[in-house]
Amino acid sequence: MNHRYIILLCIACLVIGCGTQKQVTTSQWHTLRMTNAATTIEVDASTMEVMCTIQAVRDSFIAISVLPMMGIEMLRVEMTPQQITVIDKINHRYAQSSWKEAATMVIPRLRWDDIQSFIEGKHLTESVRHALGYTYQGHRISVTIENDAMEWNEPIQLRAIRLNRYQKVSLSQLLQR
Question: Is 42 in contact with 6 (CB distance < 8 Å)?
């Protein structure tokens, strides 16, 4: 499967409602951690299964790590209300983008408020399986996450990545590979 779809879908992955049997209202949570989320990515007829970790601090930060094999982080997407940073650890590249730029690349448009809304649980159901679909350059992309082990209001741990170790490219260049 083309590497650019994995990167794009990691960004889109955060928009997916993270399901849990425990309902948490929007005023109750400050942090969220979901580990070992089984994620299925489908691009047209190709399918890839990876494990993801999602961590969030309400109103300020969301991170997703893609761990396709043996817990080795291949890709990280970090989001704030102002920007998106995508770090491709395999190819030693990264891209930083405003939400405005990222929103022009997929249909429907990506927005921080939508992601925050899903993380807050405004669109959660009792199911632990959630799917999301996007279109990118004419290709239909869908993502499904299954996880029933969400941790609310627990400390999150995320190591900072030294971006000076990576080559900076535009988000569109990162998606071209």
Answer: no
pTM > 0.90: yes or no: no
Arch. (CATH architecture) of 3-154+162-176: Clam (2.50)
Q: What is the pLDDT of residues 144-160, one digit of tens each?
A: 777 667 788 888 888 88
Please enumerate in sequence order all residues whose Cβ is within 8 A of that of 103, keeping only pairs 6 or more positions apart, or say none: 109, 110, 111
3-state secondary structure of 87: strand
Cα(157)–Cα(154) distance, rounded to whole angstroms? 10
Give residues with Cβ within 8 angstroms of 167, minimum separation 6. 92, 93, 94
Q: How far is CA 40 from CA 73, 80, 139, in A?
A: 17, 25, 16
The closest of 45, 49, 44 to 13, measured between CA atoms, is: 49
Residue type (1 letter), 144 = T
Q: For the segment 117-144, what is each residue's pLDDT rounded down to a tens digit?
A: 665 655 544 444 555 677 778 877 777 7
What are the CA-CA distances from residue 97 to residues 31, 80, 117, 128, 158 (Å)?
A: 24, 11, 21, 31, 21
Q: Give the separation between CA 83 and CA 103, rounded to whole angstroms.
A: 11
**CA 135 to the chain's CA centroid:** 16
